[in-house]
TrEMBL record:
Originating species: Glossina fuscipes
Pfam families per UniProt: Abhydrolase_1
Domain AB hydrolase-1 stretches: 49-173
Alphabetical list of PANTHER family matching this protein: VALACYCLOVIR HYDROLASE
Domain of life: Eukaryota
Protease keyword on record: no
Gene assigned in the entry: LOC119638899
Keywords of this entry: Hydrolase
Any GO molecular function: serine hydrolase activity
Name of the protein in its database record: Valacyclovir hydrolase
Length: 282
């Protein structure tokens, strides 16, 4: 009898250890061209999903609940969250805010996934990361399986400009939103970086007629899931209808009381919705 009990205990222990190993995250850097890109990998599945953070964000500041929870909901996936060049721990280099910085991020992301031997992948893109995700899906359709976006826009509108001017001074942010980024960069550098980003978006508005990825949106073939916080204060109301009009096929879910960070505020619900979408047969 004791042998049977010991055998059961040993079997249970091995199962627990196996599960811990499966879902434990690994953080490391990957050489992509001249950049050392910092990534977090979680899960051991053959399929891949890339998490793309918002403006000046990083893998941990923007996606902690997804890194920790999605592998359990997606056992056949490996979850990969990156710090774009010049953000988070992918420094150096100093962040480049040229007019085509979104396109540069898109190219680097695709090359990163190729370097990981995962050339076909799905994407979760939030805010700026959603813009980059739209560019990837439009320009590199052969590399994208499924696309999930929220808080993203294809262009900069007059209303967006007013929104940006209203949030330029980070001293007016809530401590909950400001402090993780101050911890990441230091308070002074975070304020500088944010102002550099605001200036870059205003430059695109003035010099490129606000076009971020309007052409790419029309080229997207991947099955797409748009999630939206109806009370998002960072996104002009016209952007979701625009995406609905110009994407060929999409699924839509709205959080009635959601704001910009629905994946953090409603992490459990968000993760289940996304997992179900990725597990659906195409």
């Amino acid at each position: 009898m004791f042998r049977a009990i010991n055998k059961n205990i040993s079997s249970s222990f091995k199962t627990i250890v196996s599960a811990i190993k499966r879902y434990k995250h690994i953080e490391h850097k990957v050489k992509v061209n001249e950049f050392d890109i910092n990534i977090v990998e979680s899960g051991k599945g053959d399929k891949s999903v890339l998490l793309m953070p918002g403006a000046v964000g990083s893998n941990w500041t923007d996606f902690k609940p997804q890194i920790e929870q999605l592998p359990q909901l997606l056992p056949n996936y490996t979850v990969i969250a990156w710090d774009p060049p010049g953000y988070g721990k992918s420094i150096p280099p100093k962040r480049n805010f040229d007019l085509d910085f979104f396109q540069n991020d898109a190219r680097q992301a695709v090359q990163l996934m190729k370097a990981l031997n995962r050339p076909k992948f799905s994407i979760l893109g939030w805010s700026d990361g959603g813009v980059t995700a739209l560019i990837i899906a439009g320009r590199y359709p052969e590399n994208v399986d499924k696309l999930v976006i929220w808080g993203a826009n294809a262009y900069v509108s007059d209303e967006d400009v007013n929104i940006l001017k209203g949030v330029r001074d980070v001293k007016n942010w809530s401590a909950r939103m400001r402090e993780p980024l101050e911890k990441l960069y230091g308070a002074e550098r975070f304020a500088e970086l944010w102002n550099e980003w605001v200036d870059s978006i205003l430059n695109i508005y003035e010099k490129c007629e606000g076009d971020l990825c309007m052409k790419e949106v029309r080229e997207i073939k991947a099955k797409t899931f748009i999630l939206h916080g109806k009370k998002d204060p960072m996104l002009a109301k016209e952007h979701v209808p625009y995406l609905k009009q110009h994407l060929r096929g999409f699924k839509y879910h709205e959080f009635p009381d959601g704001k910009h960070n629905i994946h953090l505020r409603y992490a459990e619900e968000y993760n289940k919705l996304v997992a179900n979408f990725l597990l659906e047969k195409s």
